């Protein structure tokens, strides 16, 4: 249809006057999801592309210009009904309509319009709009008509002080201008559609924005713009607000995990040259050398504390505000190393990931990751920039598979991101993965993705399954592979503005599927390591052939025939056995293919005569005949790569980030019944059912040498940590067909083994 419209931007005062002056007949909410191509060709040609959402109705609208006379816009509008809001538009649709062949027409954001409508006649109506988009609000009056405009109507409206002959850009053009301006300046703000759910409490965009503004004001008043800001808070709404306050002020920040030992935290504070720490009263840490300042409440219930050093200007180094955050990873010397991640890298990451995975505003993402692990930023910052609802798990929900499953189901989560180990933990509890029935996208990363886990997810879910790969030094994820319908595991292809090179030990590029070290180049490269120029020079290097700066990942890989990348383990997990160089993770990948095996780790065992042999540890539902595994491997690997010993274990110990802790592999070995050290007196005071409960509990113990385990032994002294505690609960629920109450799912509820024995017994009797 041919649409004629006159539109003029007005100020807020005029908007309020007009709002009171008419008996508006309709009040509707429109959400326009706007699309653009990489070259911005659509806007240059005057073509606007959007999906308009009103209630449950979704229409793809393409407006083609016919002519424009000052405020008068005459356009041909084409409408196509849609069932969902796509992240990308099929370029074939646009080609069929306007003859343009444009790739990567992607959704770039949404504009919300609160529209008041007054029907002047059958052919004319007035629309009064309040538009909210990106980080601004504007006001607009629009007259839509079919034939000729009513001159008396124009005269009437002109009394309010605006000119209908003035130039006025359309919503689409204004949105694009703001979008590209923000992009160029590196501006990152909450999307208007965003919200955060924590402990069942929802904070909307406006509430979060109020809290962010309060923190910004508090930080400004206390002169925090000279150095790096440490943020030491428990998980919750305030942590999110503090992060965005730092982003708004462009202060480089470090998320200080308050659960870490004080010694490690002190090392991080010193390494990053942190002179200001933002904290809260519920964080019981006294920072030596810092003065404590109690700040105002940021909301009705939360007070903040500022710890500051009184330092001379020479000591207080000003950081380049191109640095967004510094994230600390483990160092080989025991000293944590801080990676300086740039705003440009993060913005590119957001754009690159959203080109592949649907991050539409209507969606919900679970945030299970600890804040000190970089993928936390995808689940929180990126999600909120894109307008998603973030379902932020508390510490119990983050680690307990029962609560994890409950959180996903009750909040109707669309997207989850997990390490393979954490997904396996969830699978151990919910064997049918019923909690993932409504999940649309599963992101797996952080460690090698076992083929059998992929097959399980393919069989038991309808979700799209992605394998994510990338080190912290190249800004979270650098490559993505959609494995939904694949029968093998690869790490896919790089995101936008990212290049992958496979090199030999001399940094010469390798082709034709040859195995070498994976090097990454592009916008995602971090600045380097804070205060560690030696390490920066070692890891961030130039390829001699191309003079391209790359990060040496220390990962081995190759390019497959279809162009996708295959990950083949760590350079530092290479070992030599009988003169042969062996990749331990290559062996693990084949063991994981054996039917029934969930995960595996291969380690080098040194015999008394200094002979080195390979030893395999695996998880499965039951013991597997070692000869069967060995025979299977003999069809895949040379003899020198086949382990001589196989140990079945219950589960691997995980790090805080949800990865397998290779350093604690020997703590995972299951104790046989006759190896369990329990005090003889236990037998005298326990009933048969209590003995059975006791045996299940201590079977999860990693304690092997420091005395007897008694009823009054604490879980810590019995060698049961928070992870093995969760496994203990799962075992008890399965063996005795009981269900632990939600408030009894964390270790602090049981001061000793006796209390759990009594609790389980009471459940059995019920």
Defining traits:
766 residues, alpha+beta, Hypothetical Protein Pfu-838710-001, Rossmann fold, GMP Synthetase, Chain A, domain 3, eight-stranded antiparallel beta barrel, five-stranded mixed beta sheet, 21 helices, 36 strands, 28% helix, 30% strand, globular
Short description:
With 766 residues, the chain is an alpha+beta fold. α6 (205-221) crosses α7 (237-249) and α12 packs across α13.
Describe what you observe in this structure.
By secondary structure, the chain is an alpha+beta fold. Among the domains are: 2-185, Hypothetical Protein Pfu-838710-001 (Beta Barrel), CATH 2.40.320; 203-321, Rossmann fold (3-Layer(aba) Sandwich); 578-668, ANL, C-terminal domain (GMP Synthetase, Chain A, domain 3, 2-Layer Sandwich); 673-765, ACP-like (Non-ribosomal Peptide Synthetase Peptidyl Carrier Protein, Chain A, Orthogonal Bundle). Helices cover 28% and strands 30% of the residues. The protein contains 21 helices and 36 strands. Strand 4 (57-69) and strand 5 form a beta hairpin.
The CATH level-2 architecture of one domain is identified as Beta Barrel
Fraction of helical residues: 25-40%
Q: Would you identify the regions where 5 or more consecutive residues have pLDDT less than 50?
A: 671-677
Percent of residues in beta strands:
25-35%
Rg from Cα: 30 Å
Give the strand line-up of the largest sheet. Answer: 1-5-4-3-2-7-8-9
* Rounded mean pLDDT score: 83
Determine and state the CATH class of one domain: Mainly Beta
Q: Helix count, per DSSP? A: 21
What is the strand tally? 36
